[in-house]
Specification:
32% helix, 7 strands, 3 helices, alpha+beta, 185 residues, single chain, Immunoglobulin-like, four-stranded antiparallel sheet, 22% strand, three-stranded antiparallel sheet
Length: 185
């Protein structure tokens, strides 16, 4: 059996962590690798090369990614990421994945969605709010699908559209004068 490298970006449901699981097929158990490493290209920052534990879920935070000091866990930016996993120093064997991270946007969307069912709003307003949030979610899912299909330009256009619609939804306070918190960029 030959080594077949593969990784899976695993949801952590946190804007402060990034999970990458090694789902490779190795001829030996435990896998014998020379120098496993992962290179992560972070939007707006230089790429970073980190050690990677084969056969396990590897979770990274802002400190391990070099975005903050050790002991401080800041949110990791949303955007297009390129991840390259290699098991040899010469990098002759590697796998590369591109994906769109939307954790910060999704957290803000979830907060707005949870506040949708407000007791003092009339049904017509609630229906319009639901349509607006459905539209925003549609753009978020479209952005993810575009990134998964290597259309990073379209992915970012859809992400920005979702962000703008959500920001406007929150700024209007939508029903009953309640304003949703806006804590993302």
């Amino acid at each position: 059996m030959t080594t077949i490298l593969d990784i899976l970006v695993t949801p952590t449901y946190s804007k402060k962590t990034l999970g990458i699981n090694d789902i490779s097929e190795y001829p030996d158990d435990p896998p014998i690798v020379e120098a496993p490493s992962i290179e992560i290209s972070i939007p707006g920052f230089d790429s970073i090369i980190l050690p990677f534990v084969p056969g396990e879920l590897n979770v990274f935070n802002s400190a391990s990614l070099g975005l903050s000091d050790v002991g401080i866990e800041d949110p990791i930016p949303d955007g297009i990421y390129v991840v390259r996993y290699s098991i040899t120093p010469a990098e002759s064997s590697y796998v590369e994945k591109t994906f769109l991270r939307v954790e910060k946007l999704q957290e803000t969307f979830d907060t707005a969605f949870m506040k949708l069912d407000l007791a003092n709003c009339n049904d017509l307003i609630k229906k319009q709010q639901k349509v607006t949030l459905d539209t925003i979610n549609y753009f978020i899912q479209g952005a993810i699908a575009s990134a998964n299909n290597c259309s990073t330009t379209d992915a970012m256009k859809l992400y920005k559209k979702a962000y703008k619609l959500l920001h406007n939804f929150i700024q209007r306070g939508e029903c009953c004068g309640i304003t949703f918190p806006s804590n993302f960029y």
